[in-house]
Amino acid sequence: MRRARLEQWLNDVWYRRPAPPPWLQPLTWLYRGASGLRRALYRTRLLPSGHPGVTVIVVGNLTVGGTGKTPFVIALCRLLREAGRRPGILCRGYGGTAREWPREVRPDSDPEESGDEAVLLARASACPVYAGADRYAAARALLENHAVDVLVCDDGLQHLRLARDIELLMIDPVRGFGNGCCLPSGPLREPLSRLQGVDATVAVGRGHPLARFEAALRVGEARAVADPSRRRPLSTFAGRACHLVTGIAAPERFQAVLEKAGLRPDTCFLPDHHRFREEDIRFEDDLPVLMTEKDAVKCRDFAGNDVWYVPIELEPGAEFGRWLNQTLKRKTRLG
What we know:
Layout: H1 2-15, H2 25-43, E1 55-60, H3 69-82, E2 87-91, E3 103-105, H4 111-114, H5 116-125, E4 129-131, H6 135-145, E5 150-154, E6 166-171, E7 200-204, E8 213-219, E9 222-224, E10 231-232, E11 243-246, H7 251-260, E12 266-269, E13 289-292, H8 293-296, E14 307-310, E15 312-315, H9 318-334
Parallel strand pairs: 1-5, 1-6, 2-4, 2-5, 6-7, 7-8, 11-12, 11-13, 13-14
Antiparallel strand pairs: 3-4, 8-15, 9-10, 9-14
Helix pairs in contact: 3-5
């Protein structure tokens, strides 16, 4: 409860108020100083970074919270396979309780051990996935066990130990960069000047003035969490009472997708990476329960027959595909 109140207060400061409280400014100076020093140490090689020997693409963001990185990584890997590449995926495994890292994550891995996003990537991407806080170590482990020629890193723009060839920065087109301040005065992990150093910027769902590309949203049929082979059109939930239960970083975006499809769900927003239990999705009224695919990987063992997840895919578009192929050729030639 305290965490939820803190997140609500921070979101209010970052995205709704004209200026943050002045007493946060000294903390922001400390954060920016430490972040700048760390980057300088990597730039001067006083802190070592490593390149795994194959093309590395990092998909990250400047802001705290969700910007669509994980579904974009899945779409990016699909594009890479269509271009004849053999991608593998690196991620942190956030929330995972395993003692040994890095670790391979399979579609049937336990999300409590490996992290919910890692398991979602393994199930949805058809690519080898390795998770660990040290992305370079995870890259080495993946390459030792799988023949891939491109590594896609889900998040990790600020993880400088892993050298990279291409940086893609995701932008939330609705919330943007908030008040434009770095933590904790604002939502930025790095100053906005960092935008100048990335290879491309991408917004999900609709355009943004600072986004070069736009990835369109595609909403699939609802699928039963307990048995994904059972499907029903999302339109069949329209006009009916239902529950929306989700533990993601920006639940309002998912709610907006459902409302655009004609649903008016009763919402229950839980903290990002929430560890679901049966009581979280059990209601006395027996109405249908809807959630995201990321939530569903943690609920399959105890979900009832009327608990559904709504898969959302991203389509980066032909222009991005052409840019990606040209950039890969150029980076490979330079390397």
